[in-house]
Design a protein that fits this description.
This protein is mainly beta. About 10% of the residues lie in helices and about 55% in strands. The chain has one domain. It has one helix and nine strands; from the N terminus they run H-E-E-E-E-E-E-E-E-E.
Amino acid sequence: MFSDAVQNLGVTTAITHGSTVTYTRSTANGGGAAGLVAVIGQSSVGVENYNDGQSMTVNQVDFIFDAPISVGVMEGITLVYHEIEPKRGDKIAFNGDVYGVLPSVDKKCWRWSDNYHNKIRVHTKQVSE
């Protein structure tokens, strides 16, 4: 019952705060693309510069999607959708800007955004305007 309430809250958040983005799978990762609804977030990551011991904070743009993420790939003349795990090299286009999927400090490009594995939080950095 509680998990149903959490899932309904996620649906409401996507409807009220979601934006349409284009997720493009890099050709090195198999190719494909899809228009998806994502809630845009941000993470601040502390990074230590090992040369002089200084640390800095890097801001990442995170895109939160319903799980699983599926992208369409042309197989002959048929568009087939495949579930994917976000990987380095994938791109997300949003509001005219392009964001590259990159691993966070934990070396992962994504993490679950809830305890029920209904939402995926993808870590990115803006790569072009």
